[in-house]
């Protein structure tokens, strides 16, 4: 199994692919307090699990505060993003995989 090193995804955010298959990808995102996952969308279905920290997450214009143990699914092409309120980690799964992360 290949090792994927952490990469700088944005200011205060690192991304590391944990597992990869053409049909599914598991990715860890580590956020510093105040860092943002800018609003975006993509054709992949995404599930997000909050491993640690607190986040204000916006999905399709609706904001929700989430914390450890929370999880949800983002349908294809839905605009979403987050602001980190307390440093932490999100574990995201994408189907199909995000080739742009390789």
What does this protein structure show overall?
Pfam families: Cupin_2. InterPro entries: Bacilysin_H2HPP_isomerase, Cupin_2, KdgF, RmlC-like_jellyroll, RmlC_Cupin_sf. This is Cupin domain-containing protein. By secondary structure, this protein is mainly beta. It has a domain at 19-71. The chain has strands at 7-10, 13-21, 24-31, 36-40, 45-59, 62-66, 71-74, 80-95. Strands 1, 2, 3, 4, 5, 6, 7 and 8 form an 8-stranded antiparallel β-sheet that branches. The two termini are 14 Å apart. 22% of the residues are buried.
Distance between the termini: 14 Å
Instruction: Tell me how many strands there are.
Output: 8
Radius of gyration: 13 Å
Helix content: under 10%
What does the average pLDDT come to?
97
> How many DSSP H or I helices?
0
What proportion strand? Answer: over 45%
Relevant terms:
102 residues; mainly beta; 65% strand
SSE blueprint:
Blueprint: E1 7-10, E2 13-21, E3 24-31, E4 36-40, E5 45-59, E6 62-66, E7 71-74, E8 80-95
Summary, kept brief:
The chain has strands at about 5-10, 15-20, 25-30, 35-40, 45-60, 60-65, 70-75, 80-95. It contains no helices and eight strands.
């Amino acid at each position: 199994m290949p090792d994927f090193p952490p990469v700088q995804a944005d200011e205060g955010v690192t991304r590391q692919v944990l597992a990869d298959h053409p049909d599914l990808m598991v990715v860890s995102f580590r956020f510093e307090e105040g860092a943002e996952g800018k609003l975006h969308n993509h054709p992949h279905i995404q599930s997000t699990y909050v491993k640690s920290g607190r986040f204000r997450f916006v999905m399709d214009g609706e904001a929700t505060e989430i914390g450890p143990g929370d999880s949800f699914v983002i349908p294809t092409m839905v605009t979403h993003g987050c602001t980190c309120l307390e440093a932490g980690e999100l574990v995201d799964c994408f189907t199909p995989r995000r080739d742009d992360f390789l």
